[in-house]
Design brief:
60 helices; nine-stranded antiparallel beta sheet
Length: 2018
């Protein structure tokens, strides 16, 4: 049994293929969400396989505990899965930058995820890494346009765990963070607390100078370039003389951290200064010499000497953005050069370099190959306190020296202890002392106590240097006024500081003496005076005392002297008459700076602390303290406060004479603590008040002082003290209340009432201060008071009861005048915000009071719509606090909280909605926050709150206020929803979903007053109900709730967290609708559209629930109005609109039909039939609309759009008669046709609209998409002109002429506008002229069948007839159709598809050619023969019937003559509308079949050929100057001997008594007689044609004409002697004929081909062998003699009479020979091998073969495929001359040759070898095809008119893959309609699977010798080409192994006749154009000589296509060959 599994989560640990039923295949590593489980199986889904739920075994799954998974790791996993799909799409879309960037970020997140999973980091490191990861995720989501993830820290928030107001605030902060994030994980955040302290990590990497032979010391310090002073102490790095980086004394001795840099220090003037000193002899040359001499540096004294200075600007590192929250910036490397100057300017060198005074310094060049980079350092900026920096970067501080700032940091921490005194040896001035040169003066610094003992461990020359008992300065060479500018740091213990002093000893260093330098003077300075003040900061000029004996330097001696002028030490005397002397000219200048938290230099501060000892100086001390430096006060805060409070009041608590000044000092100190610099001292102050403050009596004085300040504020001249006072009320009240507590504790609570009165009095004074009219001076003071109000009232919460506090707050805020300045109003609202966010709001009693005060002021400002942002912030704070309280009291909400919520709802909800509705019209930045507040308020309310609020809005049962509130609320909600919560950014999906959840719950409550208060007959308010329904529909259809648009993981996540809110709202709508009862009629039909939108939401449960509403509507309207026409009309209108908006699907169509039909049938109303019809109609409309929508986009879908548009157009016209919709789709179709350049169809489309208009009406008419109205007749006139323009462009002039006539009648008889009449008549005349003169290509028509369930409904399993584009053949058409249906497969045959195709899921398309059947009535009024240009239009236009044929055999098949049983199955298709029309295709509506008997088919062939000849005769009689070549070609193809013999097959087949008595001949007597008549008629037409040809033929064509006369006489002779055939005589059938299916040749064929042809030589590569096939046979075995003297015999009907006896066909008469005809039968006339000239004999040669077989069926030349054929003079003459003449003609006419390549799809033919007929075998195996180019395969008759031939250009086509040049014979299938409506068919249609490719045969042309060439036959189907180059017989052996071909030798020869080598091609190939003819068409016979229709191969029945192409010629057709 399946049980729920509480959403378990697991991972597949093995591949599982899911072979069981409902199994879900899994790959190892797939994650699965488990929904249910049983004993051995889980059921669930895999996120990787979207929406598929299945089962899988438990053993394959490892269950993971989601509670133990790091949420950031889980988010990484989800994000990587989501991004991977997008990443692949970016690759496909070629968005390279995004692709590569996203790839880097994904790899980075993957690596971070791995680190988080390893769990090897500390909590701080983990948190830091999590922040980096989520920053990258937020960056990626923002760049990819994904949803924002709201976060608190690194974790995503649960929207159900916090209030919606807080959720909004989290979204705001997360959005800011996401915008500030980068792909590297750094984050620019707007932090509340600025980082005020920074530190600079420093490391010297390299020193690029070598100071020859000496060591060096490099002193680094930070330097302020603006004030030209150091910022830090110095840091020392020692450099050995070998150039190494440092002495290996201490690790990291080249690294330090410069600490405590403030924001002001980090500016562009910050520099790093490096001072380099040489350590060695005074003169460098001495050191070098010493080294060179001794090889070492010697043992003499060494001194510091100046070498150079380098300066590095830190402006770029100092540009630090404090909002960039990161652990540290990157460490960067820098290099800078050293400069040198004169020694006297050395102390100024940093300043000179910074000021770029380059004239006073020069760079130091590094010598040799040394590095010239100078000094290389690396720097890194650290942030935060020093302790924090040590924690975050422990490795940097490990071993590094700390280099202190000269001064305090910006933030002084209470625990910081520092006691540093910085001394700078600036300069000295000394007397020369009788020497010519100056001294080399060395200063030795030593710190001593009062007894003269040296103090150790307290003197540093620089950080990085060990403490020394004394410090030696550098030496400036020969300078009596040296300037050292060296800085030292003293850290003397506090207990020794008061008595310590510093002594400076001055010594002269000789360059010669090796002894120690000699002392000559000293100075000293005391560190502290007797008052306790330390040595003051600044410059000090010290006295210089002479002393040359070190033993005399006794502290007891010189401490009695003055150390400097104005030395106030009590022991100091100006008397130096003792041991020491002093010169007034000598001076030593010292600069000091104290940085100490324990010592002060300020005497005023010391006197304040010691006030009891000197009470008379109190006033001065207090005044002095006001001028004190802030740091001094803060350092001694506790001591100062104790002293001040002791002075403030006496022991009785009364004020003293100093109270006012003391209060002033107190206020100054309190205001000092408000600054950021000392913000960390606030806890120190609070600690002092709570634990150290002991003045129990000062509260009275404090109250009095503050009250006094309030009263006298307006009279003050200087507002600063007042501002400080009221800005410091927090500490004043803390001290006041603590003092009162101490007093009450001591006295048992005495004077409590007096204390309260004093407080009230104080607040009264404060209120009075606020009520004073504001002006610029006092506004800051009033603001300060208001800013302190919240915290002051909080201090009083334990002193005064809550009601009193509320009263104080209300009175204070109300005291502000209504028209106060904006600054004061803002301060007031800030005070309210402080109140609601403070502790007062957490207590039940005080919260009620504070809330009432806040609501009062909120209402006031919301109604005035000013300060909305502050109002929103206050509301947000209130709602957040209340939400938290509500969650805390979830089990039992207190009555106080309920009351507060009621109060908030009553006071705020209405005004808030009104405010939002007003500001929504503009773009107000505060609107989102106000909307969040509204949602937060709704979230807090429950049913009881709403009920009380509804009651509040309906006093005395008056519903007006309630109605107004509901209307306004519903309007605001709908505005928010229709904009899809546009108030929030698009990517705030979490916020939108939470908002929808709140709104849905509130709408359920809003529904109750509608039902209970606005539904009754008297109280019903339709507008209110309409608003509610409209809002609910908007909720349902908002984009953010359409879950189908989201990816599967996101959809599941939303469903898991919120469910599908659309379903819940849908049921709410149904519930409300059911409540309406009789009132439903008010919402019909207005609610049809909204409800339709609801049902179109793609959620099955919702659809099933809501579709029944339509039945309800129909029922209501039927009952009330007798019909449901309004519902029907509205539903149809809205459906069209909504479906076009991409709503709805096939599932909806099915549900609509089934659910409503079931409902109608179940309820069985009296309107059941009408309802069922309506539902069916809407279902059909849905089907068409969905079809239309599916093809709305894409150029490849244009044809589909046209079909769908026509379907809709017809629906709106025929089924529901909606004119406006009908017109809309007419114009849509019109626009589609214009885009496709289908101008004729565009004209037909507009004609639909024009036909709706009348010439008689003047009413205004409006077209879709055109708002300008016109009278109806004008609109129709305008349409007609547009249609005429389109018909002209589409060359459909015949259809434009009636419109011209109609317009002419309008202009002539109604409007009398002769100008327009003349114009339209001119246009009409132009149309008539165009019909006769313009070339119009005839379109081809194609039958297209669409099969399979994968196709759209509108074409599925239907057949259509398409009208092709201009010059579009079947290959191009197929390609176009495949573009439109790219997934479809093309069926390769024409057989009807079976059920597997029809019902399968695939798509199949079947394409074939069809022939149009013209309307027989089109030209029935003609009294004369209609010109071809006119008649041809009606044969291929205005057609609705099309045919295609398929050959079939019935009865026994006579292999000698298959025509006996060859039937034609003719399929007739009828389409719904004529083509052309409003589309280029129409559906086949009717399909019929008919069968043509063999005789009927023969009659059709003969009749069509005769008709074509007659047309030619008419044309040439009318225009005798036309090119005669087409006429000659047609006659030659009909008469010439190459098609003789076919008539014998007809004769054998049908003109016998045996046929008539056979079952096949039953009832065919009339058809047989008709066939005879048609043959006689053709003979008569031929006689007329020859007569006309003789008259027209020029001299060059006369030889051909003579030959035609000769052949015609033979034709008539053969027909007249049918009954007297002789077997042995030579007959016309011996002339080459088209191939005919034959049986397997008998062995006599081999014997007859045994004579070799010695002159035939060949290259094997171009030789082919043709095999015999049993299907084809010779025409007959009997020959009949012919009278040579009577060649023209009379042909009569009697001669064609069928004999009554059952004898065989009469023998065939002998064939008259031309003089060049070969009589020995050894070889057929061949262009390759000139025949030997032999006299003509009357008898046949022994072994001579019978007539060759007929050519294969269907292989007939296209009327455009053949080139002009030049005929030789067949008379006797010089062969060379004739050949020359032939060559001339060949070049003159540009004749081309072609090689015919024939391929059949005949299974029988494919199984048997093919052979040549015996006469070709005897000819040596050469097959040379040479016959009239327009021959049909069997009759040689072309259907092309001569005029058409004259204008036709032929195109060269691509060559086949064969190495032999091959050509295609392309035959076009035509069907013509005679004037009497008879059907004429062309022969090439009989073939369906033939591939013919063609190219110029210049590579295979041959020389033709002088002989009359009878056109050789097209080889039979049975001919096959073998690869050994010989002709194979039946057994596959070559009859003449020596037979060869000359084709290789003749590639260069002149073009004469076209000779074709035949080779068999694979089946179903396409030619160069790719045209595939799928419809078999019957063969046409054009003459008696070859009227026999050849049997079609069985492959034709399979529907394989014939590929056909055309060849081109630049000359008119004047003959040609194949």
């Amino acid at each position: 049994m399946w049980i729920p599994s509480n959403n378990k989560y697991g991972v597949a640990i093995h591949n599982w293929h899911g072979e069981v039923r409902f199994g879900l295949p899994l790959d190892v590593g797939d994650s699965v969400d488990i929904v249910e489980e049983c004993t051995h199986w889980y059921r669930g889904s895999c996120p990787r396989k979207s929406r598929s739920v299945g089962i899988f075994p438990k053993t394959y799954i490892h269950i993971k505990d989601l509670s133990k998974i790091d949420p950031v790791v889980a988010e990484c996993t989800q994000v990587l899965r989501e991004w991977s799909e997008i990443w692949k799409r970016l690759f496909v879309d070629r968005e390279t930058y995004k692709f590569q960037t996203l790839r880097k970020v994904m790899f980075s997140i993957l690596e971070s995820r791995r680190e988080l999973l390893s769990a090897t980091m500390t909590q701080d490191q983990t948190l830091e890494l999590q922040m980096v990861v989520v920053s990258k995720i937020d960056w990626g989501n923002r760049k990819l346009g994904l949803d924002l993830v709201p976060r608190i820290g690194p974790l995503a928030v649960d929207p159900h765990g916090i209030g919606i107001v807080k959720l909004y605030n989290v979204h705001v902060s997360s959005a800011d963070n996401a915008k500030a994030s980068s792909s590297r994980g750094t984050l620019r955040r707007k932090t509340q607390r600025k980082i005020l302290t920074h530190h600079l990590y420093f490391c010297m990497r390299d020193f690029g100078h070598r100071i020859g032979g000496d060591d060096a010391e490099v002193y680094f310090m930070l330097y302020d370039g603006s004030r030209m002073r150091p910022l830090s102490e110095r840091f020392l790095v020692k450099i050995s003389k070998d150039g190494l980086s440092n002495y290996i004394e201490k690790l990291h001795s080249n690294c330090t951290v410069f600490t405590d840099l403030g924001a002001a220090d980090l500016n562009e003037d910050l520099h790093l200064v490096a001072i380099v000193m040489r350590v060695g002899k005074i003169i460098q040359s001495d050191s070098i010499k010493k080294v060179e001499k001794n090889g070492s540096s010697g043992h003499g004294p060494t001194y510091r000497r100046p070498f150079g200075v380098g300066v590095l600007s830190l402006g770029d590192i100092a540009q630090f953005d404090s909002s960039l929250e990161q652990a540290s910036s990157e460490e960067r490397e820098y290099s800078f050069k050293l400069y040198q100057s004169e020694e006297k300017d050395f102390h100024l060198l940093p300043e000179l370099i910074i000021k770029k005074s380059s004239g006073k310094y020069s760079p130091i060049q590094a010598g040799g190959n040394q590095n010239t980079q100078g000094i290389v350092v690396s720097l890194k900026l650290l942030h935060g306190g020093l302790g924090q920096a040590r924690q975050e970067q422990p490795l940097l501080f490990q071993g590094s020296t700390i280099t202190r700032k000269m001064g305090f940091p910006d933030v002084i921490m209470p625990g910081d202890v520092r006691n540093d005194l910085f001394l700078t040896l600036e300069r000295g001035e000394f007397e020369r002392g009788g020497k010519n040169t100056g001294k080399n003066i060395l200063v030795t610094v030593v710190v001593l106590d009062v007894t003269g003992n040296v103090l150790t461990d307290c003197l540093w020359g620089a950080s990085g240097m060990d403490t020394q008992p004394h410090y030696r300065s550098m030496i400036l060479y020969h300078q009596n006024a040296p300037s050292w500018n060296e800085m030292l740091r003293l850290s003397v213990p506090i207990d020794k500081f008061a008595t310590a002093h510093v002594r400076f000893e001055f010594r002269h260093c000789s360059t010669r003496d090796k002894t120690e330098p000699k002392l000559f003077a000293f100075s000293f300075a005391r560190l502290m005076d007797t008052s306790g003040a330390t040595l003051g900061d600044g410059q000090h000029e010290l006295y210089v005392y002479k002393c040359e004996d070190p033993a005399k330097l006794q502290a007891s001696n010189y401490l009695r002297l003055q150390c400097r002028p104005r030395d106030s030490h009590p022991q100091a005397k100006n008397d130096c008459s003792g041991c020491y002397s002093r010169s007034s000219k000598e001076v030593f200048v010292l600069r000091s700076l104290l940085c100490s938290t324990k010592l002060t230099q300020n005497a005023d501060l010391l006197s304040l602390l010691q006030w009891r000892a000197h009470p008379e100086t109190i006033q001065e001390s207090l005044t002095g303290v006001l001028r004190l430096n802030d740091e001094e006060l803060v350092k001694f805060l506790q001591d100062v406060l104790d002293a001040l409070f002791a002075m403030f009041s006496n022991e009785e608590g009364n004020s003293t004479q100093h109270s006012g000044l003391v209060f002033h000092v107190l206020v100054s100190i309190f205001s000092l603590l408000q600054s950021n610099k000392f913000q960390h001292f606030r806890p120190v102050m609070n600690e002092y008040i709570e634990n150290h403050f002991a003045a129990a009596l000062v509260y009275k004085g404090l109250i009095t002082s503050v009250e006094h300040m309030a009263v006298f504020m307006t009279k003050a001249e200087h507002p600063d003290p007042f501002q400080k006072c009221f800005g410091s009320l927090e500490y004043i009240f803390k001290l006041l209340i603590q003092s009162r507590r101490l007093f009450a504790r001591a006295t048992g609570g005495q004077y409590e009432d007096s204390f309260r009165r004093d407080l009230h009095s104080l607040f009264t004074a404060l209120n009075g201060m606020l009520s004073v009219p504001s002006y610029d001076v006092i506004i800051p003071t009033q603001e300060a008071l208001l800013n302190s109000t919240g915290v002051v009232l909080e201090q009083l919460k334990d002193t005064l009861p809550a009601p009193e506090l509320g009263m104080l707050a209300r009175n204070m805020l109300d005291a502000i005048p209504r028209g106060a300045p904006i600054r004061l109003i803002q301060a007031k609202l800030h005070a309210v915000k402080d109140l609601v966010s403070g502790e007062l709001f957490h207590e039940d009693d005080s919260r009620t009071v504070v809330l009432s005060v806040a609501c009062k002021h909120l209402r006031m400002h919301l109604s005035r719509r000013d300060e909305l942002r502050l109002c929103a912030e206050i509301l947000s704070e209130i709602l957040s606090q209340l939400y938290d309280l509500q969650r805390e009291q979830r089990d039992k909400v207190t009555n106080t909280l309920q009351h507060d919520l009621d109060s908030l709802c009553k006071n705020i909800l209405g005004i808030l909605i009104r405010t939002i509705s007003i500001i929504m019209e503009g773009s107000n930045a505060v609107l989102p926050q106000l909307v969040a507040c509204l949602l937060g308020l709704l979230q807090l309310l429950d049913e009881t709150h709403y009920k009380r609020y509804w009651d509040e809005l309906t006093p005395y049962k008056d519903p007006r206020d309630l109605k107004e509130f509901l209307s306004k609320s519903l309007l605001v909600y709908e505005e928010l929803l229709t904009q899809d919560w546009l108030v929030f950014p698009n990517d705030w999906l979490v916020m939108k979903l939470a908002a929808n959840d709140v709104l849905r719950i509130s709408l359920e409550e809003f529904a109750k007053p509608l039902v209970y208060r606005f539904l009754g007959p008297q109280a019903f308010d339709s507008q209110l109900w309409w608003s509610y329904f409209s809002l609910a529909v908007s909720f349902l259809t908002q984009p953010s709730l359409q879950l189908e648009q989201y990816r599967e993981p996101k959809r599941l996540k939303i469903l898991h967290s919120h469910g599908d809110m659309r379903v819940l709202m849908g049921f709410q709508i149904l519930s409300m609708w059911s409540q309406l009862g009789e009132q439903k009629l008010h919402f019909i039909p207005s609610m049809v559209g909204p409800f339709l939108e609801v049902t179109l939401v793609p959620e099955p449960a919702l659809r099933k629930a809501t579709l029944t509403v339509f039945y309800d509507m129909m029922q209501c309207e039927q009952a009330a109005r007798g019909s449901f026409r309004l519902v029907e009309s509205e539903l149809i209108d809205k459906l069209d609109l909504l479906i076009s908006e991409n709503k709805g699907d096939d599932e909806y169509r099915e549900l609509f039909s089934t659910i409503l039909l079931e409902k109608v049938q179940l309820e069985n109303p009296n309107w059941k039939d009408a309802g069922i019809a309506f539902i069916a109609s809407v279902t059909r409309l849905l089907e068409r609309l969905l079809d239309y929508r599916s093809v709305m986009q894409g150029e490849e879908n244009r044809d589909k759009r046209m079909t769908c548009t026509v379907n809709l157009l017809n629906f709106y016209k025929n089924e529901i008669n909606r004119k406006e919709m009908y017109l809309r789709y007419i114009y849509k179709l019109h626009n589609l046709h214009l885009q496709a350049e289908n101008y004729t169809e565009a004209g037909y489309t507009l004609k639909l609209y024009a036909s709706m208009l009348s010439w008689d009406r003047e009413t205004q008419s409006f077209a879709p998409f055109d708002n300008s109205g016109q009278p109806e007749w004008q609109r129709k006139e305008r349409l007609y002109h547009e249609i005429l323009k389109y018909f002209d462009k589409g060359k459909c002039w015949e259809k434009g002429i009636p419109l011209c006539k109609e317009l002419a009648q309008l202009y002539e008889t109604r409007r009398f506008d002769y100008n327009k009449l003349s114009e339209i008549l001119i246009l009409e005349a132009k149309f008539f002229q165009n019909i006769l003169t313009q070339l119009r290509p005839e379109p081809e028509y194609f039958r297209v069948g669409f099969y399979g369930m994968g196709l759209p409904l509108f074409v599925r399993n239907k057949q259509f007839v398409y009208r092709g584009l201009e010059y579009e053949r079947i290959a191009a058409f197929t390609q176009r159709l495949q573009t439109e249906f790219p997934s479809a497969q093309i069926l390769g045959n024409n057989s009807p598809p079976d059920n597997t195709i029809l019902n399968g899921p695939e798509q199949y398309i079947q394409i074939s050619n069809v022939r149009p059947v013209g309307d027989a009535q089109a030209l029935k009024t003609a009294m004369v023969p209609v010109p071809e240009k006119i008649s041809r239009f009606y044969e291929v236009n205005d057609v609705t019937r099309f045919i295609y044929d398929r050959p079939m055999y019935k009865g026994p098949i006579d292999k000698d003559n298959e025509f006996k049983s060859l039937w034609i199955e003719r399929t007739i298709l009828e389409i719904s509308s004529p083509l052309p029309g409003i589309l280029r295709w129409f559906e086949v509506k009717h399909k019929s079949m008919q069968e043509l008997t063999p005789v009927e088919y023969a009659c059709e062939i003969i009749g069509n050929a005769s008709k074509d000849l007659s047309e030619l005769i008419v044309q040439y009689r009318r225009d005798q100057k036309k090119n005669i070549n087409p006429f000659s070609m047609r006659l030659q193809g009909t008469i010439d001997a190459n098609v003789m013999g076919g008539i014998s097959k007809y004769q054998e087949a049908f003109f016998s008594d045996q046929f008539l008595k056979s079952p096949q001949g039953a009832g065919q007597q009339a058809n047989v007689q008709r066939l005879k008549a048609l043959i006689l008629e053709q003979i008569q037409i031929l006689e007329q044609a020859l007569e006309l040809h003789g008259q027209l033929a020029p001299s060059g064509v006369q030889p051909l004409h003579n030959r035609l006369l000769e052949r015609f006489s033979q034709l008539k002779q053969s027909l007249s002697g049918m009954g007297r055939l002789k077997r042995n005589s030579e007959s016309i059938v011996n002339t080459p004929l088209p191939p005919l299916p034959t049986e397997q040749r008998s062995t006599q064929a081999a014997a007859s081909s045994s004579s070799p042809n010695p002159s035939s030589n060949s290259n094997a590569n171009s030789n082919y062998v043709y095999d015999l096939d049993e299907i084809y046979t010779r025409p007959g075995d009997t020959l009949r003699p012919v009278d040579p003297h009577n060649s023209y015999q009379t042909l009569s009907k009697e001669s064609l009479t069928i004999p009554l006896d059952d004898t065989l066909a009469p023998p065939v008469p002998n064939r008259p020979r031309s003089q060049n005809f070969l009589t020995n039968g050894a070889a057929i006339d061949s262009p390759e091998v000139p025949p030997k000239r032999q006299p003509l004999t009357g008898g046949g040669v022994a072994g001579s073969p019978n007539a060759p077989p007929l050519p294969p069926r269907g292989i007939t030349p296209d009327k455009r495929a053949s080139n002009p054929m030049i005929f030789n003079d067949f008379g006797a003459g010089d062969s060379v001359g004739r050949r020359h003449s032939a060559q001339q003609q060949q070049h003159q006419h540009g004749q081309k040759y072609s090689v015919v390549d024939i391929s059949f799809d005949d299974p029988e033919a494919d199984q048997q070898p093919h052979s040549l007929p015996p006469n070709l075998q005897e000819a040596g195996g050469h097959l040379n095809v040479c016959f009239a180019p327009n021959d049909f395969r069997d009759s040689g008759i072309s259907t092309t008119s001569s005029r058409e031939l004259n204008h036709m250009n032929l195109n060269n086509l691509s060559e086949d893959s064969s190495s032999i040049s091959v050509s295609t014979v392309h035959h076009r299938d035509h069907c013509r309609i005679s004037s009497n409506g008879s059907l004429e068919m062309q022969p090439a249609a009989a073939l369906s699977s033939m591939n013919i490719t063609q190219r110029e045969s210049s590579t295979s042309s041959f020389d033709v010798e002088d002989f009359p060439v009878p056109p050789p036959p097209i080889p039979p189907k049975s001919l096959a080409v073998s690869s050994n180059g010989v002709v194979a017989n039946e057994d596959g052996h070559s009859p003449n192994p020596n037979t060869h071909n000359h084709s290789n030798n003749n590639h260069h020869s002149h073009h004469h006749h076209n000779h074709s080598h035949l080779m068999q091609q694979p089946q179903s190939q396409q030619n160069g154009d790719g045209d595939v003819y799928s419809s078999p068409q019957p063969q046409q016979m054009n003459g008696l000589a070859g009227v026999l229709p050849p049997p079609l191969p069985s492959a034709v029945e399979t529907g394989q296509a014939i590929a056909a192409t055309t060849s081109s010629s630049n000359h008119p057709h004047d003959g040609g060959t194949f």
